[in-house]
Amino acid sequence: MHKSRESDAIVLSEDEMFKPAETALVAEDDPIYRRLLQNRLENWGYKVIAVNDGAEAWEVLRQPKPPGLLILDWMMPGADGIELCRRIRQKQDDPYQYILLLTGKDEKQDLIDGLNAGADDYLTKPFDIGELRARLRAGRRILSLQRELIQSREALRFDATHDALTGVWSRGAILHLLEAEIHRGSRSHASTGVLMIDLDHFKKVNDTYGHLTGDEVLKESADRIGQALRSYDFVGRYGGEEFLAILTNCTLDDLRIAAERICASVADSPIEVNNESLRVTVSIGGVVTSNRGRDREFLAAADSALYEAKRSGRNRVVIGSCPPSLVFRDNFAESAVVAHA
Ligand code: GH3
Ligand code: MG
Ligand code: MG
Ligand code: MG
After folding, report:
1. pLDDT score of 153
2. Atom of ligand 1 nearest to the CA of 200
């Protein structure tokens, strides 16, 4: 930053025009230093929260989205800078917070204590303004590297748990969720619904229109299945053209209604791909979990219900129970294979 000669306005250098503005917490009990820091930082483009003791600083830091850059005075009432450093590092929050400690002390041992307590850097008062600015820039670089790392970690986590084609949960993730939901449900005496959903005669879509069109049909079908469920239910791709839905806290009636909604949302309007209008249907097998039994047994029961739905004509829902199976929505017209609208 420099002051432009003509207007005397503050001009920010390129790396100071960061967006969104970095929020900095200034905790300093000396009003002159506090005002100086606040003014300078605001001129450099930071959003500043200024407090005058350690207790207020801790209040700010306990909020859900605390500032990333912390300038903490060593000596202040409430909690001193060192104590705050310790508490912040104990919290081990993600994302990382960069701490610059301000101190009037200059003995070596004090600095070692500050860094050991978790500070990233320190400045001894009185400090040079240019040095303060350079050290804040270094801190901001660390924070932005950290954010990039978190973003790529989140992207990797998403890729590892989601199906690349349809964006729903991957097979591994949905099976893991099923196990977790069944455990959670049995602890709270709530039943969980499981639906095995399979596209009917899907091979014919590929054979007739090609795999790329088939892929689009899979994507659209997955979207429709997701939209037919509640936001707290889960959908995953169990296999090629087979999806698994988990309905939390779900009675047999809820399950049947949701499965019929899915059937209708896929079948009721054609899927438009590359100027083709494709009529697609699904068959669904479902079960409601009891407190007894394991995820594998429920999957096997949902699979046999699905088999029954296929065998009895497709485009329908069969809810399996410990025998016999109950057949719903079997009054549908012949399973629509693939037809031009
Ligand atoms: P059914 O009604 O008995 O389920 O008949 P179907 O043709 O749907 O079942 P089948 O198991 O014979 O064929 C499934 C087809 O799904 C075969 C396979 O090529 C196709 N498929 C699986 N995964 C994908 C995919 O990712 N993309 C595309 N385009 N096709 C896929
Ligand atoms: Mg002080
Ligand atoms: Mg199929
Ligand atoms: Mg199949």
Report:
1. 93
2. 2
CATH superfamily of 2-159: Response regulator (3.40.50.2300)
Q: Which of 198, 203, 303, 318, when mutated, tests ligand 1's pocket best, judged by the most ligand atoms within 8 Å of its CB? A: 203
301 C-alpha vs ligand 3 centroid, how far in Å? 18
Which member of 241, 242, 297, 308 is catalytic?
241
Does 242 score more than 70 pLDDT? Answer: yes
Residues 6+ apart with CB under 8 A from 319: 252, 255, 256, 259, 285, 286, 287, 288, 305, 325, 326, 328
283-314 core/surface letters (b: 16 or more CB in 10 A; e: else): bbbbbbbeeeeebeebbebbbbbbbbbbeeeb
Please name the fold of domain 171-339. Alpha-Beta Plaits (3.30.70)
- Quick one: average pLDDT of 294-323? 89
Domain locations along the chain = 2-159, 171-339
Q: What is the rounded CA–CA span in Å between residue 56 and residue 62?
A: 10
31-59 residue pLDDT tens:
999 999 999 999 999 999 999 999 999 99
Q: Is 284 in the pocket of ligand 1 (CB under 6 A)?
A: no
241 a catalytic residue:
yes
Residue-level pLDDT at 337: 35
Ligand 1 pocket residue status of 153, Cβ below 6 Å: no
Distance, in Å, from the CA atom of 206 to the CA atom of 76, rounded to the nearest integer, reads 71
Q: What pTM was computed for the model?
A: 0.73
